[in-house]
Amino acid sequence: MRDLKHMIFFENLLQEANNDLVKQARGEGKRALGYTCYFMPEVLLDLPGCFSVRLRAPRSGSPDMATYYMSNRTCHYGRALLERALEGGFHFLDANLATETCTVTCRFQEHLERMGVIQNPVFFSTFTDVPFKKNENSMVHYRKQLQAHVLDPLREKLGVDTSDEALLAAIEEHNEVCRLITEIGEYRKLPNPPVTGYEFHVIQLVTLTCPKYLILPYLRETAEELKTREPDAKPPFRCRVVLAGAENDDPAFTALVESCGALVVADRYCYGSLPGREEIVVPEGQRPLDAVARHYLQTSCCPRFMPQEQMRERKKYLADLVRAYHADGLIVASNKFCEYWSYERTMDALILPRDYGIPTCSIEKEYVNASTGQLRTRFQAFVESVEIKKLQEAK
Question: Which one, out of 34, 82, 171, 209, has a CA that is 20 to 30 A from the CA of 15?
Answer without folding.
Answer: 171
